[in-house]
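Rather than argue in generalities, we have chosen a single entry, letters for residues, whole numbers for local backbone shapes, without further comment.
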Amino acid sequence: MIQSMTGYGRAHREQTSGRVTVEMRSVNHRFLKISVRGPEVWDRLTPAIENVVKEKVSRGSVYVNLRKQGTFAGVREFLVNREAVEECRRQLAQIEGGKEVPLAQLLLLPGMVGAADETEAELDEVWKNVEGIVREARDEMIRMRQNEGKHLREVLLRELQGLRKMVDEIGVRAPDMVKSYRERLSARVQELLQGSDVRFSQEDLTRELAIFAERSDIREEIDRMDSHLKQLRVLLDAEGPAGRRLEFLVQEMFRETNTMSSKAADVELASLILDAKAAVDRLKEQVMNVE
């Protein structure tokens, strides 16, 4: 069943020395785009976090936000540059009043405090604790995407059913277009030739109708629309991502309705085709939300 690309998930875990919170949200995007934000000391965990997302998400912009309070898994968050502090102290000692500069002010200077450079073993320990939280947030986001997908499917089904009725009615009305044109053309010719000696032969009328029928024939477009509607209905219950295929089908449907609109010479039929174009446009807006 289809899923939406819109979702949100949140998970957290506490230890005696700290707490980690992971928030994950996703919105529409043509492809899969993952953005990870978190403590600088965990930057090297980004590829692992992205792989967790890719396991179950194939499309959309996914934003992952990690927040850490205190120490987590025993890893230091910041590292004081002792050599820089001592050198600064030495130079200040040579300046009058320099010895009275508080340590807190020295630590605010650039380069005095930086991100701790963890060892691989420390990062492995962090990931063992954080991975489960990331997966929990991801799964909650996916559940929301699935629930949104159910609602989206209902909306698409309603639009699809309405469009099906319009296409069926267009198919019924289309053959009458030539007959209606024949009656209008015959009446118009008789009106124009009334009171004159000019004669309009049946052969001329038949030839004009044949040209009109060829130019205004929309049977192929109706057949293709019928095929697209059937495929779209199947995709709504298909397993796995279907958004791109749905977008392609809707684009083709829009092309068919455009062609029919350019060929329609009957006012009522043209109005019905315009309604169908509007329905296809609504479908297009909705399928852009499908993964």
About this structure: The chain is about 60% helix and 15% strand. The chain has three domains: 7-75+121-146, 78-113, 149-287. The beta strands are 7-15, 18-27, 32-37, 60-70, 78-80, 113-115. Residues 78-113 form one domain.
